[in-house]
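STRUCTURE:
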């Protein structure tokens, strides 16, 4: 079982405030494909690497179709992609 400490080490600090929370099931569009999944981690705004860009708040989602977890950025322009 993955602990909060493990998730923070892997994805960075958890956001203190977000519309959707860990454990919520959401339906979203990514690359034109509608997907449903459970939020594993809500990443706070910040840099993933020293040289990388600053990323906005985003969700790490365990999708229902299996495979790798999805990364769902919460840019103002893409908020509409979270459908429920």
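SEQUENCE:
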């Amino acid at each position: 079982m993955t602990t909060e400490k493990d998730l923070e080490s892997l994805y960075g600090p958890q956001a203190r405030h977000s519309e959707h929370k860990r454990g919520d099931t959401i339906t979203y569009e990514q690359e034109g494909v509608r997907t449903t999944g459970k939020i594993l981690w809500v990443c706070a705004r910040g840099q993933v690497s020293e040289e990388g860009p600053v990323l906005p708040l985003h969700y790490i989602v365990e999708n229902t179709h299996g495979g790798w977890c999805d990364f769902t950025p919460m840019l103002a322009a893409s908020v509409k992609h979270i459908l429920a």
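REMARK: Confidence is low (pLDDT under 50) at residues 75-80.
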